[in-house]
Structure formats: structure tokens, C-alpha cells
Design a protein that fits this description.
The complex is a heterodimer. By secondary structure, chain A is α+β, with helices and mostly antiparallel strands. Chain A has a domain at about 5-40: Histone, subunit A (Orthogonal Bundle), CATH 1.10.20. Chain A contains three helices and three strands. Chain A has helices spanning about 5-15, 20-40, 75; strands spanning about 60-65, 85, 85-90. In chain A, strands 2-3 form a two-stranded antiparallel ribbon. Chain A starts with a helix and ends with a strand. Chain B has three domains: about 15-310, no CATH class; about 320-430, no CATH class; about 440-495, Orthogonal Bundle (Arc Repressor Mutant, subunit A). In chain B, helix 2 packs antiparallel against helix 3 (about 245-260), helix 5 crosses helix 6 and helix 14 (about 470-480) crosses helix 15 (about 485-495). In chain B, strands 1, 2, 7, 8, 11, 12, 13, 14 and 15 form a nine-stranded mixed β-sheet that branches. A three-stranded antiparallel β-sheet of chain B has the order 6-5-16, with no helix packed on it. A two-stranded antiparallel sheet of chain B has the order 4-17. In chain B, strand 14 (about 270-275) and strand 15 form a beta hairpin. By secondary structure, chain B is an alpha+beta fold. Chain B contains 15 helices and 17 strands. Classes of the chains: A alpha+beta, B alpha+beta. Chains A and B meet through helix 1, strand 1 and strand 3 of A and strand 3, helix 1, strand 10 and strand 17 of B. Chain B: It is an enzyme of class 6 (ligase). Chain B: Keywords: ATP-binding, Ligase, Nucleotide-binding, Protein biosynthesis, Transferase. Chain B: Its EC number is 6.3.5.-. Chain B: Belongs to the GatB/GatE family. GatB subfamily.
Chain lengths: ~100, ~500
Amino acid sequence: MSVDITTVKRVARLARIAVSEEDAARMTGELNTILGFVEQLNEVDVRDVEPMTSVTPMAMKKREDIVTDGNKAADIVANAPATEENFFLVPKVVE
Amino acid sequence: MSIVDTRTPDPKRFISGATGDWEVVIGMEVHAQITSNSKLFSGASTEFGAAPNNNVSLVDAAMPGMLPVINEECVRQAIRTGLGLRAQINLKSVFDRKNYFYPDLPQGYQISQFKQPIVGEGTVTVSVGPDSKGNFEDIEVGVERLHLEQDAGKSMHDQHPTMSYVDLNRSGVALMEIVSKPDMRSSDEAKAYLTKLRTIVRYLGTCDGNMDEGSMRADVNVSVRKPGGAFGTRCEIKNVNSIRFVGQAIEYEARRQIGILEDGGSIDQETRLFDPNKGETRSMRSKEEAHDYRYFPDPDLLPLEFDQAYVDALGKDLPELPDDKKSRLVSDLGLSAYDASVLVSEKAIADYFEKVAVSRDGKLAANWVINDLMGGLNKAGKPIEESPISPDQLGAIVDLIKEGTISGKIAKDLFEIVWNEGGDPKELVESRGMKQVTDTGAIEKAVDEVIAANPDKVEQARAKPTLAGWFVGQVMKATGGKANPQAVNDLVKARLGLE
């Protein structure tokens, strides 16, 4: 598997990362090198192997349904560039 | 996913166009907010209507380094809902990240389930109707899957000329997305499906079903085709928030698509919005890449696993569901399918009815609950929870009719009094002298008086026996409607020598 520069630019845009034409060309090469390494893994037959989700076998921790958090609106918006009455203010987005 | 057509085209449901009949094909994705105290992956409250950003933890705000921990109750509720949909429960499911950018999604992705949802295929039996003859038709709507996911925050665009306001109180609240198969063929079927789904989650107590508060909302997929033909290209109408709007949106959208096709055009697969004020759907700003969500398993969460014993225990504790309740009312109490459908349509109504019907005549109780009580509530615009008459009071009225203490007609008056003034029906009957007169002596006296006062009518009645009804009416009037009508009728006929 390999990617071309169009794909690299598209993925960058989807991830909202600004990438110049020059960087995109360089990254295409780098990504294809990485994909080449990954490709090698395909040589191993893993048909009957379950995908590993954890290094040691463990079950997902669950939480009880009780309210233990919240009531800190001022903290939540503390770092926001613009707020009003504890709302976040963002440049207008309308569908 | 390969789509299977499970339905036989039915001309009753066709929409006629300029070039002949068309069939609409509908599938639905319903988002139902799980009833829980805290969010799916954080300990913040889910309460509706809190001050802005008050029900937000650092997890919900996606602060760096925060990790999600799943709420066990949400898992339990999703499984119970799956069981209520008679669906496959998957003992192992996986959370994925659905990546997109929007200001009310601070993580930049929604934690959802993509390839391995917690609940697989199921079925919902939907009663469609009544038609003009009062008949219901049962159809089966397939459920493709149910998965757990996070809700996003809420944006408001009308508070400021250049800024949008974002409140993350909803962010991270647990949702069940229930995806149907494209098994519906009319707007009525779609409305009935959504209604039934809401009834089921309310019976189960897994979602409050309040569409006004956004606890339930539907994305509706609509396409049209020539009857029995291949599926057409669909459009998705996003976030419809009432059952009535679902119907209107489908009607409009089907017409729109038929118009385009009949003019020789083709349908673009796109996302549309329903505008309830204009009653029309319109295209959302086209986002070419919006559908490239780049799903991948969330590395912050292990697979969700539980054993069959856990599922079985939940299954055992499931309350009686509307379909089962309906069958029981029909088979045990002898109600008609129609009456039973009406009574089970809302859990609160069914609960009320069962209190009235306990060790009483089920049919009589059903008549009073459906016609008088629900009719009155409808007129007053009140839900059954605010009924001015309690099940015990209505039960007492039913007892009084059954014992013959009051006639059906007096019962209506008594119902009015209890509705407006309250009180114990048995005492009211005594204190207001509403008892039916079954004392033959008293009735005889009244009959004789009417006959004596109207010799001319007596002559006419001998020639024309149907006039006996007039005498019955006079006697009923004279006794204030309290005489037993059957007894009066018998006596009048005997005295007039009509038998």
C-alpha cells in the first residue's frame, strides 16, 4: 500500500493540519516508507489470531451510575478565548 | 450491508405521480437518550436544563490527559433495550472513534460503535392504522443494530451577530442509536414505527422518549421507486424531532423526489434538513468529505464484554412489554384488539387501566377508560398522569353500574361530578339521590300516573305500539332518569296491554 500526494493533502485537510505543497511532497515519501514497513507485517499469516486489545488480559473497568463530577463551569471555560455567561463563544457556524 | 426487500408492494401505500404509481422506501436511525444519572464516560450529571456548562467534567470538555470510564448502567440499559427489540445481544462489542470537526464536539471525534455494536438484528411489530374501517394492520420492521455512543454539545446561533454559543452539558450523554432496516413503505408506517419504539423504551424505562427535550430524535432515510423495482437513491433527513414532523418530512421528500424523477432528473444522495415552519426539506450545505469519518477502534477503551448469565438475568427482570400486554388483555379480559392497542399505547394508560380493571369487568372498564376518561383528558389537554379521576374512583363508578345501583346514563353524570368536584362515587350516589329506582312499586306508580294523565296517547299507542317509547321517556323524566329503563319498558307494555 502506498499513498500519493493527493491523499496526503486530503488526510491533512480532514485532520485540519495545514501542510504546504513542499511539505506534502516530503511527507508522501516519509509516509510511504512507513507504509512499506507496515506492509512487511502482511507477510505473517494471522488468519486465526484474534486482534490483541491489551498486553495483559484484562476487562474494561466500569463505573457506577452516580454523579461525581461537574459544577465547575467557570473552570471548564477558563482557557477559552471568548466566553459569555459560561458559554463558549466561537466564530459563527450555521448549517 | 446488503439490503433485502422484506415487503410485498401494496397498492394501498402507493403515491400516484404523473407517470403512474410510486412506492416510497423508508429506513430510520433513531437516537434515544439513555435514562441515567451520569454520562456514558464521565461522572457529570445528565439533568436537562442546567446552567451552561455546569454538567461538564474535564472528560466531556476533552481536556488533555482525560480518560473515559464507561457507565455500567448505560450498558445495562442498552442490553435491556436490545432484549425489548427481540434482538441479538453481542457479548463482545467495541468502541470506535468517529472523527469530524464541529465546535460542539470538543474531542474532535465521537466515541461510538462501528463494526461491532452491542446489539445486532431484531424486530419491531408495528400496528398501522386504524384505516377508514377502523382496522389495524401489523407489519414487521427489522432492526439492523443498536449501538452506544456519546451525544455532542449544543450550539446556538441566534444569540450574537458573529459568534455561536456552545454549551457542552449534553456532551458525553449516552445515546442508543437504533438503526432500522429499510422496511417501511409509507409515512404512516414510519410514524407508527417511531411511536412503537418510543412506547417500548418507555415501558422498559431505558429512555424517557421526550422528543421536546431532544431525548429522542430521528434521521429518516427516504427513497422512491416504481413499485417492486430496485431501490432508488436515498436522501437522509437529519434530526427530525417530532413524530408528526417525521410524517410531514417523508410526504414532502417523497413528492420532491418523484417530481425530479418524473422530470427526467436524478436524485443526489445527500443530507437534508426538515423545516417545520415551511413544511419542506432542504439540502444541507454540501460537505463533500463530511462522510469520511475515518473510524478506528478507540485506544482508550477496552472491548465491552459481559457474559450470557448477565444478559439472561436482565431478560428475566424485563417488565411486560406492550405486545405481550396487548395479547393478555385480549385473551384474559376479552378486549377487542382495537381497545387493547389503545390501552397499551402508553405505559401510563395501561397502568391506569389495569388498576381500574382489577377484579372487575374488563370490557366495561376498557369502555370507560377509553371513551370517557381518555376522551375527557383529550378535551382538557391533560396527560393521564394529571387525570382528575383516580383509578379507584373510576373503578367505583364501574362497580356501581355493574351492581345496578346506577344506570349507564346516570353514570355519565356521576363521572362529570367526580371529574369536576372529586369525592367518593359511592357516597355521591347516596347524598345526591342518584340511585337507580328498582323498587317496582315506585316505578308502577310513576307509570300509572303518566298513563292516567295521557288518555289520548294511550289510545294511539294501542293502535301504534312503537309509541310505547314515548311513555318510557315520560316515566324516565318523571323519575329523574333514575328508574331502571328495562323495568319501565316492561311495565309500560304490560299496562298498555301491548304484550
